[in-house]
Design brief:
About 35% of the residues lie in helices and about 30% in strands. The protein is built from 10 helices and 12 strands.
Amino acid sequence: MLSKRIIACLDVRDGQVVKGINFEGLRSAGDPGALARRYNREGIDEVVILDVTATIEKRKAMARTIGAVAQEIFLPLCVGGGINDEAHADSAIEAGADKVSLNTAAIARPELLTALARRYGSQAVIVAIDAKREAGAFRIYVRSGRQATDRDAVEWAREAADRGAGEILLTSIDRDGTKSGFDCELTAAVSEAVSIPVIASGGAGTFDHFVDVFTAGRADAALAASIFHYAERAVVDLKQHLAGRGIPVRL
């Protein structure tokens, strides 16, 4: 069985890491380079940088921020936020990213996924899906969670995989920043629908929340921000907790 991955997310705005609740009320959480250095030391498996206002403000993900993080870590780095064409993906890769994450642009131009997968390989193309429970379904939101679409998360995940995406980064807007636990029903629904890895995001608050999402949620990886940024939980302790419950992790 493949090891489950623990991923730290750096939500960045104006060069600083920020965090909110349900995608609202962002507050500062520190310097991205300094946090990346700590995570590299503590044993995080991957780091994701998301420029949370890039799409809204028509900005590109900042190359300086990517470079500052890349020089501090020796593990996979994924970058997302406002990546809407091949040139911008090129810029992120050249700045030090190993993978790029697309959300709004992928919904608007699904063919971009195929183009990037052909260019870099599917392993470098991540589709971010931000979903909210509505009327018994999981509706997708874009533009940093501010604009509803008519797309269903499970159906879009299937299409994204068919078009060349190598992973799904699945965030529950309802659980984001709440520390109330991952949405295991959402995660399991998407995991069962696709053959590519699914990264669960939104709601991590305790070690057992990770146990739940790796078992009931069938996630391949779990991403968190708040509990790592504010040093509330140590990564090595989390991994030991998971290993003690029979969940394979890299120690």
